[in-house]
Amino acid sequence: xxxxxxxxxxxxAIFGLARTGLAAxxxxxxxxxxxxxxxxxxxxxxxxxxxxxxxTDINSRDWRSFAxxxxxxxxxxxxxxxxxVVTLADAVGVPLMGDIELFARAVNALAPAQRPKLIxxxxxxxxxxxxxxxxxxxxxxxxxxxxxxxxxEAVLDLPPLHAGAYYVIELSSFxxxxxxxxxxxxxVWLNTxxxxxxxxxxxxxxxxxxxxxxxxQGAADWAVIGVDDGYCASACTELTRAAMQHIxxxxxxxxxxRGVSALNGAIVDALSGRAERVxxxxxxxxxxxxxxxxxxxxxxxxxxxxxxxxxVIAHAMTTFPGLPHRLERVASIEGVRFVNDSKATNxxxxxxxxxxxxxxxxxxxxxxxxxxxxxxxxFFPRMAKAYLIGQxxxxxxxxxxxxVPVTMAGxxxxxxxxxxxxxxxxxxxxxxxLLSPACASYDQFRSYEERGDxxxxxxxxxxxxxxxxxxxxx
Length: 474
Description:
Elements: E1 11-15, H1 19-30, E2 34-38, H2 42-50, E3 66-71, H3 84-91, E4 96-97, H4 99-108, E5 117-122, H5 127-140, E6 144-149, E7 165-170, H6 173-176, E8 186-189, H7 197-200, H8 203-211, E9 222-226, H9 230-242, E10 246-251, E11 260-263, E12 266-269, E13 276-280, H10 290-305, H11 310-319, E14 328-333, E15 336-340, H12 347-354, E16 360-365, E17 367-368, E18 383-389, H13 393-400, E19 406-410, H14 412-425, E20 432-435, E21 439-440, H15 448-473
Helix pairs in contact: 5-10, 5-11, 10-11, 14-15
């Protein structure tokens, strides 16, 4: 835990008692603050109390007594309208912040010689893989590394701050909306496509939230930014003109005169202006696909900015295990390969997976994002058949009609069984059953993790049945 002492002896309100809220409550209490924690959910309040965090209804308190309101990143800040606690705080001038801002203030309070290195990663897609890859490279280089934020542990649950440590923090747009003093030694913005517009309202607000990752950077700091989409390319131009920090453009679609490119299975370092091939992505099985090439380019640029030897980075990429639910190779049964890409909760993420495989038996559906799967049309020829589940099944079936054979599987277990039967009977060499749903999961599952875990379990059941069947045949 990282104790937060800035509010020692003062009252702090916390609203939202999921992972980050609980960590903030414990960190503030450890630093001597009087914590007033609340959540509208009975279940969340009961869980908080079970973990030793007392709850009090902050709605009935005098808000003028609060030194700050620590808000869960999932609570609406501005759109479609501010949550009532945001309105209450604004009415009496109580500062709003999230757990990342508390962390930033704790770092800022340290003497420069005691300050750890901070690396932040954001982007619509790929930020978890990139964060984990950066942490892996740094560990392979012998560094003391902590990974958290929007991935794994809440940032305030990480080990205490000290000089020589490297904190790799995945940052969502929701979290960035709540920071004001965060200064990152290396800030990575991978890409931007439409997402979370129900929270931000429009693309301008979404992009503005992402740009906050570069707040407070100075001449010694690095901004690593993708230039393969218009939003990020424009931001890269703005940052370059402002000349406030070092800029490292990265791309998986073009050779850069200055920056880091990932093209034709290789990482090319041109940060100094002279292009040099420095890593072979073909030797890194967990980094397949163009989207992972971009992730690898960003991780390379970030760790080079921190002084890591290119040879160490290249070797570390070959040993990176990848992340669960992201192009995770689950099993091969009777020649059929099963790939778990449950993290693909929007069409753009699913497109990255579909681009890896020339032909798939695709499992898709759930709660669709705006636009559905219209922008996957270029990949329809790669779908041998689609097995649709959840709320979006009807909408997706309409989109695929006349272009891709469709089975309305209804649920994931049925989809896995049906896809396996068709793939096995196809006679194709090494057919792929791909779960890359292009949808949120919460119509049938609590999270994309639960959806992916269930996929693994259903595949495991098929493997056991296959062993029994083939054993009996023998």
